[in-house]
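Format notes (please read before filing issues)

Several people have asked whether sequences and structure tokens are stored in separate files. They are not. Every record keeps both together, in the order shown below: the sequence lines, then the token lines. Line labels are part of the format and must not be stripped during preprocessing.
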Amino acid sequence: MFSRRRRRLIVTGIAGLATPIVALAQQCRITPRDALGPFYKSGAPLQTELCASGRGGGEKLAVSGQVLGMPDCKPLPGALVEVWQADAHGDYSQVGAKVEDARCLLRAGMRTDGAGRYAFDTIVPAEYPGRPRHIHYRISHQGYATLVTQLYFARERGVPDGLVTPIVRNAQGGLQAVFEITLAAA
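Then the structure lines:
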């Protein structure tokens, strides 16, 4: 028969193994799809700064995350992450007849690094009639289903579970958000 101490060590060891498995299972859910929206434009510039000029006085925001693939939740290096968003007034670039600021298109494409990570700097988008603040995403990688989704900053107005990432203030006083993405196998 096992001693009380040995039993406690075995139970603690099993519980210790279960924690990473539970964390992985929670982390590795396929990211929900959402509407493409009417303002997607293919061929956005490959860059990690969506608004160098601070167009419209929007507050700077750093967004980062990791792209994983099902079923094994492995990082996906080289995934194409396309993002686009409204400015601080709720307007999109490259829509309508207004003059565009090439340093602040609020559209970009970027490739994930060797660990599937991506990051970009932008401004906090404004709400506009009928829509909470959000950033559009289109993520593609060979062997996986292309995902169209959106990052929202608050749970409101029918925002789907799994798409909310609050904006937080980091130690340096800047705003940041982390949006993890998991693609389904094709």
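For reference, the curators noted about this record: The first helix runs from residue 4 to 27. Confidence is low (pLDDT under 50) at residues 7-12, 14-26.
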